[in-house]
Structures are given as C-alpha cells and as structure tokens.
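B., you asked whether I could sanity-check this one before it goes into the benchmark set. Here's the sequence:
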Amino acid sequence: MEQFFMEQFGISDTLFTYLVLPLIIFIARLADVSLATMRIMFVMTGKRKIAPLFGFFEALIWLLAIGQIIQNIDSPLSYLAYAGGFAGGTYIGMYIEEKLALGRVVVRVITQTAATDLIEYLNKKDIRYTNIDAEDNDGKANILFSVIKREDLREYIDTIKTFNPRAFYTVESVKKVSDEELAVESGRAFPLRFWTFTRR
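And here's what the prediction gave me:
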C-alpha cells in the first residue's frame, strides 16, 4: 500500500507513516465498528438476511486495518488511530442505530392514578395494550403494557411524563412479535388491541 501511494500520489515515506497510514486505519476502524453495531442491532431484531451482509464487510474491513498495523507494527500512531477509530465507530454506530429506530419495544408503565389518558392515547394511535389493576408499596396501582415501534417511543414517553411525571416506566427491546405477519398483511401494524384485564 505504501508503494501505491508513493507511485500514484508522490507521497513520501515519512508522510505515509505519520499521516496517511494512521488515517486509513482510523477510517477503517470507524467503518467496521459502525457496521458491527448495526449488525448486532439487526441480529437482535431478527433480520436474518441483512445481518450476515454487515458481518461480511465488517470482517473484511477489520482485516484491512489489522493487516496495516502488523505491517507497520513499529508505528505508535497506528495504535492510536486504531483505538480512536474504535471509539469513534462505537459512537457513530450508536447514533445511526438510534436514528433508524428499527424494531419494537415493550413499554411498562406503573402509575398510582388511572391510566385513562394513556389508554386514550394508545387507542388513538391504534397501539395494542394490556391494562392491569395491581398494588405496589404505596397502595393501588395500574400497570399498562404496550408494544410500540421504536420510532414512536420518544413521543409515548413524552405523553407518559405529561400524563403523570411521577409514573414509573421501563422499556425493553422485542425480537419478534407473534402476530407481526398478520399486521403486515392487514396493511398496518397491530390493528387489534390487547384485551384489557381488570382485577376486582
């Protein structure tokens, strides 16, 4: 690679060692770690067709980066570029994953007041839910389960905070939904709602 840059671009050996090589390694690590983050996301959401493709390019780019380090093992800048690319790739991968917001999540909301407003919101958005009367340390409570698209999560959390700022909620990723095929065939996600259970 060094000879290629010297012949094609007239880059000196010193410039290649201290600038071009670290930059190549940094960009390679930036790319392969970003792909790794995306691959894990697709694996977690059950995307079997696209995840192996990301894995292929991830491994290919990683071999390129590590190969250049081995060939220039005496260059400390190569190690710094490798570590810096890993850190940057982790950040970029997380940013892309957050922006894509693929898949669905389970949101559990526990509140001491009736979840009427939240249920109305879920009905309006045609989101499936289950509402359960329960008890916690402070007495009677409502537990509201719902499965929503990740792209709608921020709006739903804002709605929860508006409805009851003291409400406790948890969010977990969902790999597969049992009737997702039915939802796709019907032309919209989750056209039916969960039954609402109320304990007397």
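One thing to flag: Helices lie at 2-9, 13-44, 51-71, 76-100, 116-124, 153-163, 180-185. Otherwise nothing jumped out at me.
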